[in-house]
Amino acid sequence: MSRDDATTNATAESIETDAHADDADNADNADADNADAHDADSSLIDPAAPDATPAVVAARSEGEPPDTAEIRELAAAAGYAVVGEVTQRRREDPTYDLGRGKAEELMRLAADAAAEAVIYDGGLSPGQTFSLGDLLPPGTAVIDRPRLVLELFADAADSRAADRQLELARLRYELPRLREAVARDASEDVRLQPEGDSRVLDVEKRIESAERALGEIADDRAARRAERRDAGFDLVALAGYTNAGKSTLARRLADEVDDPEFEDEAGAPDVRRADADRADADEGEGDPADGDGPLAVADRPFETLSTTTRRATVGGRRALVTDTVGFLDGLPHEAVRSFRTTIDAIRAADCALLVVDASDEPAALRRKLTASLSAIEATDGPVIPVLSKADEVGADGLAAAVEAYEGAVVDLDPRDAPVVDALRSPIPVSVRDETGLADLADAVADALPTATATAEAPNGGAAQAALSWAYDRGVVADVDYGSETVVVELAGRPDVVAEAERRFADAPSS
Ligand SMILES: Nc1nc2c(ncn2[C@@H]2O[C@H](COP(=O)(O)OP(=O)(O)OP(=O)(O)O)[C@@H](O)[C@H]2O)c(=O)[nH]1
Ligand SMILES: [Mg+2]
């Protein structure tokens, strides 16, 4: 099915439904929500896209009324036409997540709308997934939020590492559901047991093998990072919620350098790429992207699924900027863990930019910021918050975004304290209007580890070799040639400056 069609056609009006807001406290009374089935909190809208899969969205929340805007967007991006919606405000029901009455209402709505899927805005336990499946018209797929995200990932995976990560996330998602399925069969046939079941064992084995393969990819990446650091590059990673503007910023920061080592080094063929011939020529490198492929930008979730690195000069420093996979609210920890190349790239960076979309409403901004924090909580290095798309909001909107941002940071769990300190004062940036970029470059240069030193060596071949080594790694701030000696001011990565000093100190007079 066409994603575009689904996107343009899934414009079903969201009808906020809070008919049961006040029975949240009576949530144990499963029938309390059964009284007025087909009331205002369900909507039935004709599917407009003939090739999109008709689906009903369901959402429950305990506090604020459910906001289905994001799940609808995700559903549309994954190729569903949302033809109806059921929402409820109450505590979780162990059987259906929704209360029984509301689940029955969902069942009727799905039948009336001939929905082929129910998209559930949240994670359902395996038991809840099966119970809902049993209740719904036969053949209706139950797709909870993590499963929907896996479908989106499957559409976008474009590299060996992304494929592996997707496979791992999928297997980890499937395993408990498979166990539940086997246990259900076992309750009817005592000879079946989940633990010894060959299908369960098979998935466990495939998880191990995917973890191993991903471990090897991660080791390669780490080795490549070490080499690049030795070569004098600072590693800057962009992190943040999906669609925040990370790739746009990475693209803007990247130098237009024609350096075969860093451009499309191992790119997969990609229709978005202008230079397709070159991609083919580079195929032999083995690892398509999660390397140095194109930085695709689009107004859709999970446009980027491969960490991608480009060379850049930021605040005068030679940097490698790594664009990463965006985060999303409501993903289970293990799904996030599967995106190891993203997590590793952010953790290992000398400086991480946390990109937060200034054009979001304050509530969404806070929610997305909190969801993105898992990406950066284990970083050792500094984190610079960036408020992206500043052009979309105007001065008042920007002030509101800064306020929402700072309010959210103050409310953060004190256990995140080291991160919280780093998160003050976001830098507003607009790539579209070219504003804030110089401030950002200055902040990055200030945040990167820097050493300075003065080295002196007798003039001659060895000193010239040391000088050329230091130039190659971008740590020469000034050179002063005397009649006998050369004096060099060094500034840059501490390890590189230390090595340059050693080389000058070792340079014999010729
Ligand atoms: N107005 C405006 N729009 C922007 C700006 N930066 C990015 N965008 C838009 O925001 C959308 C998402 O941008 P991306 O750079 O693809 O976002 P991302 O964070 O890489 O998204 P994923 O890869 O899907 O996680 C695109 O439509 C961009 O054109 C900006 O400075 N101003
Ligand atoms: Mg991106």
What is the correct CATH architecture of the largest domain? 3-Layer(aba) Sandwich
Name the ligand types: guanosine-5'-triphosphate, magnesium ion
- Give the N-terminus to C-terminus distance in angstroms: 72 Å
The dominant shape is elongated
**CATH fold assignment of the largest domain:** Rossmann fold
Count of alpha/pi helices: 17
Features of this protein?
Rossmann fold; binds magnesium ion; alpha/beta; single chain; 17 helices; 4 domains; about 500 residues; disordered N terminus; 6-stranded mixed beta sheet
Structure commentary:
- Residues 234-452 form the Hflx-type G domain.
- With 510 residues, this protein is α/β, with parallel strands linked by helices.
- The chain has four domains: 3-153, GTPase HflX, N-terminal domain (Rossmann fold); 157-215; 232-254 and 295-447, Rossmann fold, CATH 3.40.50; 451-506, Alpha-Beta Plaits, CATH 3.30.70.
- 42% of the residues lie in helices and 17% in strands.
- The protein has helices spanning 3-9, 69-77, 100-112, 126-135, 145-156, 160-188, 198-230, 246-253, 276-282, 333-338, 340-347, 362-376, 394-410, 417-422, 437-447, 461-472, 494-506, and strands at 42-44, 53-61, 80-89, 117-120, 141-144, 234-240, 308-314, 317-323, 351-357, 383-388, 427-428, 451-458, 476-481, 485-492.
- The strands form three sheets. Strands 7-8-6-9-10-11 form a six-stranded mixed beta sheet, with helices on both faces. A five-stranded mixed beta sheet has the order 1-3-2-4-5, with helices on both faces.
- Strand 4, helix 4 (126-135) and strand 5 (141-144) form a beta-alpha-beta unit.
- The longest helix has 33 residues, at 198-230.
- 45% of the residues are buried.
- Guanosine-5'-triphosphate (GTP) is lined by residues 240, 242-248, 297-299, 301-304, 326, 388-389, 391-392, 430-432.
